[in-house]
From TrEMBL:
It comes from the Bacteria. The keyword Disulfide bond does not apply. The lineage of its organism: Bacteria, Bacillati, Actinomycetota, Actinomycetes, Micromonosporales. This is DUF4386 domain-containing protein. Keywords: Membrane, Transmembrane, Transmembrane helix. It comes from Phytohabitans aurantiacus.
């Protein structure tokens, strides 16, 4: 019994550490692309930035590979931790997250193309942006499923906020898909709940004091 409790606490904290890596590397990668390389509607400036910052594109690719690998392990741990709440929903959440990770991984081909073909970097990075939005549709559904699990495990406020975050991901991704010329103007507002909820979830995992989180 004691050994099992310790293993669950260790698993929760490991998931929290991996979540921290995912958040840090994911946010840093996107910030680097948006502030140092990608210039909306300016192919010449984006091409020049991509040609001059090859090291940064390599670093962004490495950071993405690192956090994607960590997220696969984290997904498995979260499934094991929350299956006691609901086996079907926990399995659904894990499956949705893994599908979104597959989309994100495939989407790295656009970053690689921007590095190897800097002349057309704007086109490649715009494709990456839309590919990322497609992955976030699936991830938004994962947030809804995880929100359900958290609410039913006693973390009601966090579960509700993560559900709101899922809706924000869905709305923002469909805006990219359906609204011509949408450049993410509403993204800061729509994804603010996600930043808060995911950071909160990470802290809950890192500070786990019981198997019930």
């Amino acid at each position: 019994m004691v050994h099992g409790r310790r293993m669950k606490l260790f698993s929760a904290r490991t998931a929290g550490l991996l979540y921290l890596i995912v958040l840090a590397f994911g946010l840093a990668s996107e910030a680097a692309l948006r502030t140092r390389i990608f210039v909306p509607d300016d192919a010449a400036a984006t091409a020049a930035n991509a040609a001059e910052a090859q090291w940064l594109l390599r670093a962004v690719l490495a950071a993405n590979l690192t956090y994607l690998a960590g997220e696969v392990v984290m997904t498995a741990i979260l499934y094991l931790l929350f299956r006691r709440v609901s086996e079907p929903v926990s399995l659904l959440a894990a499956a949705l997250r893994l599908v979104s990770l597959a989309v994100f991984t495939a989407n790295l081909s656009n970053l690689l193309a921007a590095r190897t073909d800097p002349t057309n970097a704007l086109r490649h990075l715009e494709a990456h942006q839309h590919g990322y939005a497609a992955g976030l549709v699936i991830f938004g559904l994962n947030c809804l499923a995880m929100g359900h699990l958290l609410r039913h495990s006693g973390r009601t406020a966090l579960g509700v906020l993560l559900g709101v975050a899922g809706v924000g991901y869905l709305v923002n991704s469909y805006l990219f898909t359906l609204v011509p010329g949408y450049g993410g103007e509403a993204t800061p507002v729509l994804l603010a709940p996600a930043l808060i909820a995911e950071t909160w979830f990470c802290v809950v995992l890192l500070r786990a004091r019981s198997p019930r989180l």
